[in-house]
């Protein structure tokens, strides 16, 4: 099997022509696991990446936008990068998580001084609005950082809720499988960074699924798994190995003995193969002040419990269970060969 400079397989092009590809806007704060999810999307024949929109979180907006442009350049990603809002809607700056992702947010691997690519002319929220309007019914938004850009897009043009095909977010912690917050006992980082924006995103009547810590902490890429990506996955696999050295140390410090949790790539996998997950539906609220700020609470539709804070809001899905072995197999197949797991077995 031959590979091009990015590590992709030549055969991939043949598969691509036989299937219709999902048009995806990837809203992200790269970030180690964000970069891993981006490379997964880039390698997948199921995906047409139409834009990358950035936000602060794992680094400042300057750092995450620089990283998105770096990844675009290094791996030949055609999609434009639109720079997102620097500050959350709450107006309360939450500092970057350098202890999780490194000072440069890519695990402190050496990065070039200068990136030739420049961001798109439009700010992220306008890019989202214009792209959704240009392709009505066709755009999926995969948001794996704070929800600020999505909330700003909704404020600018609430109609986009009817125009996008679906929204999948990595965010929240709903208490399934014993998993709660990773910033506070109840709050997950992407929601914690802008709880107000997240509550507005959950208030919109677009088809939305939240892939929270409930499932992302159920899947772990072991050191041996990551090593095998490095050994067999060409430049992409080697890059994943390099950036995850820092991330593995962070996990070890948090008591994870072998490997890393799979946050952002779980959300990407849901978008491409929802059969990997079990979901539950119901309106979702975010606590926007006080001790429990950032907590995400779904009132399950099966619960016969009228309550004004949830009633009248649209029903959304959350993931409650994941088939981790199958998800890991899927990710590996796409990184190594640019093909979906099922396509391998049907050969
Ligand atoms: C989320 O926070 C960030 O550190 C990761 O990139 C992921 O999106 C997990 O809580
Ligand atoms: Ca992220």
How would you characterize the overall build of this protein?
The protein has helices spanning 12-16, 32-43, 61-75, 98-101, 124-134, 148-156, 160-163, 189-192, 195-203, 213-216, 223-232, 234-253, 264-272, 324-337, 341-345; strands at residues 22-28, 47-54, 81-82, 139-143, 166-170, 208-211, 220-221, 260-261, 277-282, 284-286, 296-298, 316-322. By secondary structure, it is α/β, with parallel strands linked by helices. Strands 3-2-1-4-5-6-12-9 form an 8-stranded mixed beta sheet, with helices on both faces. Strands 7-8 form a two-stranded antiparallel ribbon. α2 links the parallel β1 (22-28) and β2 (47-54). The longest helix has 20 residues, at 234-253. The chain starts with 11 loop residues before the first helix and ends with a helix. The structure holds beta-D-ribofuranose (BDR) and calcium ion. The site of calcium ion has 9 residues, from loops.
């Amino acid at each position: 099997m031959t590979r091009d400079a990015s590590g992709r397989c030549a055969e991939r092009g043949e598969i691509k022509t036989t299937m219709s590809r999902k048009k995806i806007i990837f809203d992200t704060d790269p970030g180690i696991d964000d970069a891993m999810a981006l490379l997964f999307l880039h390698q997948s024949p199921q995906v047409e990446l139409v834009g990358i929109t950035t936000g602060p979180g794992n680094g400042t907006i300057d750092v995450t936008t620089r990283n998105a442009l770096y990844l675009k350049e290094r791996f030949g990603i055609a999609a434009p990068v639109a720079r997102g809002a620097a500050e959350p809607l709450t107006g309360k700056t939450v500092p970057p998580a350098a202890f999780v992702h490194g000072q440069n947010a890519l695990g402190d691997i050496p990065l070039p001084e200068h990136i030739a690519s420049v961001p798109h002319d439009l700010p992220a929220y306008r890019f989202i609005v214009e792209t959704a309007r240009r392709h009505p019914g066709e755009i999926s938004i995969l948001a794996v950082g704070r929800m600020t850009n999505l909330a700003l897009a909704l404020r600018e043009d609430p109609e986009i809720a009817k125009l996008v095909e679906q929204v999948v977010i990595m965010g929240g912690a709903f208490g399934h499988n014993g998993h709660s917050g990773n910033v506070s006992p109840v709050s997950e980082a992407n929601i914690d960074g802008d709880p107000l924006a997240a509550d507005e995103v959950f208030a919109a009547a677009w088809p939305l699924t939240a892939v929270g810590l409930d499932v992302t902490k159920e899947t772990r890429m072991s050191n041996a798994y990551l090593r095998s990506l490095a050994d067999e996955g060409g430049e992409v696999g080697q890059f994943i190995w390099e950036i995850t050295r820092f991330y593995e140390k962070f996990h070890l410090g948090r008591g994870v003995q072998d490997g890393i949790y799979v946050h952002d790539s779980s959300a990407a996998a849901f978008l491409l193969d929802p059969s990997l997950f079990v979901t539950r539906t119901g309106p979702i609220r975010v606590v926007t002040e006080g001790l429990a700020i950032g907590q995400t609470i779904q009132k399950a539709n099966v619960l016969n419990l009228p309550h004004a804070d949830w009633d009248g809001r649209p029903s959304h899905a959350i993931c409650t269970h994941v088939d981790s072995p199958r998800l890991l197999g899927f990710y590996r197949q796409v990184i190594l060969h640019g093909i979906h797991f099922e396509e391998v077995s049907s050969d």
